[in-house]
Amino acid sequence: MQEDSFPTNSGPGDYLKWGSFVFMTFALLSVSVFWKIEKSRLEPLKPASQAEGHGGASAQAPMQGKIAPDFTLPTIDGGTLRLADYKGKLVFLNIWATWCAPCREEMPSMQRLAEKLAGGAFEMITISIDEKPEEVEKFIKELGLTFPVGMDPKQTVAAEYKITGVPETYIISPEGVVTHHLIGPGDWDSPSIVAAFSSQVFGKERAGN
Question: Which of 47, 91, 145, 170 is 20–30 Å from 189 (CA)?
Fold first, then answer.
């Protein structure tokens, strides 16, 4: 297909962009593989109705390569979260819940990644599927999270993103395509992940810093 090959008139910038994408793919793949190994030993704490099949060896990434569904949700602080507002930026979208132990585990590394990428064409946004806003507010304050949190208690948006459980992360390109759909938690501020995101957000010169 056209997307899988280099155009014949590619310049240095095109090759750099392609290389950065491949770099990120391998880095995020390592997160997914690590989660599957850990999942074989540790069962995440979540309601039984949502636990079956999530993050197992047969877990799929149904949204990868698809156009990210637009959405508008109320935020925990009384504002509005719209995916369309971040067009032209690399978006890290995470769907989670306060009762999810792996979500709590990965959130601090997400916060650190967001801080490291501050000032670039990058946005970290999240969606909670909790029904009680007060629980979400308590969770955010306890962990010191500063990124936007949209509320989706009926899981309407979550269903559009075809979640199989929580947490799940979607990397959305500036053009609005889900380039990576990660099932399970990640160590989001590991050197390889930070370098992969930095190469996309800031360019090659910042990726090694």
Answer: 47
Spatial distance between the Cα atoms of 92 and 120, rounded to a whole number of angstroms: 13
Q: Three-class SS string for the chain? A: CHHHCCCCCCCHHHHHHHHHHHHHHHHHHHHHHHHHHHHCCCCCCCCHHHHCCCCCCCCCCCCCCCECCCCEEEECCCCEEEHHHHCCCEEEEEEECCCCHHHHHHHHHHHHHHHHCCCCCEEEEEEECCCCHHHHHHHHHHHCCCCCEEECCCCHHHHHCCCCCCCEEEEECCCCEEEEEEECCCCCCCHHHHHHHHHHHCCHHHHCC
pLDDT at 203 (0 to 100): 85
pLDDT-wise least confident of 54-63, 75-84, 121-130, 193-202: 54-63
Mean pLDDT score across all residues of the chain: 81
Range of lowest pLDDT (42-51, 102-111, 155-164): 42-51
pTM for this predicted structure = 0.75
